[in-house]
Each structure stands twice: as C-alpha cells, then as structure tokens.
Design goal:
108 residues, mainly alpha, 5 helices
Length: 108
C-alpha cells in the first residue's frame, strides 16, 4: 500500500498535466518502485532510491509549471523511516548494556 501511494505521488507529476521526457518518468519510477522491497533489501533499495532522486533533482532542476513542485522525495522519506525503524534494536541493545554494566559490576 505504501509503495503504491509513493509510486503515484512520484510518477503522477511526471505524467500530469503532460508527459515529461522518458528519463524523468523512469527516474520518478526508480525513486519510488524500490519501496516495494525496502524491508527485504534495505541498503540496495536505499541506494537505488537515493541515486534516482538525486539524478532527478540534478537533471530536472527547474520545473516548467507548478505541478512539478510535487516532485518531493517521497521514496527517500519512506526509506529513511524504514531504516530508522530497523535500526532501533541496535541502539537499544547498546543503551541497555551501558546502563546495566555498572549495576552488574556492583553485583559481583
């Protein structure tokens, strides 16, 4: 569901009100489609999404009409949230170890 919404939000402005060059549509698709497998291949999907978003921004810097202002990095935002959600256990483990270390040392 999230991947579908991101896909429509990214590819929609490339097709409405008129079709952009093929590479703009392709980069918009590449900036959104990897959200389908963001949990299974976290770093690979992040690399594809980030590269496509960067190339879209560099290659198409001045939109010809206001609708193009909708080219926001929705795929990158979803990927960043997924990355942060997946990274929570590691900092929690470190925090628990650091907090419990003095208590364990004192108990010995």
């Amino acid at each position: 569901m999230v991947a579908g919404v991101v896909g429509v939000a990214m590819v929609g402005p490339a097709l409405v009100p008129y079709v952009q060059p093929w590479w703009v549509v392709l980069l918009a698709l590449l900036a959104s489609a990897p959200t389908l497998w963001r949990r299974a291949a976290l770093l690979t999907s992040g690399l594809v999404i980030g590269t496509a978003t960067t190339l879209l921004t560099i290659g198409y810097p001045s939109p010809p009409h206001p609708i193009m202002l909708l080219f926001l990095p929705f795929g990158a935002l979803v990927w960043t949230y997924t990355f942060a959600a997946a990274a929570i256990p590691a900092p929690l483990r470190v925090t628990v170890i650091v907090v419990q270390a003095p208590a364990r040392a004192a108990a010995r």
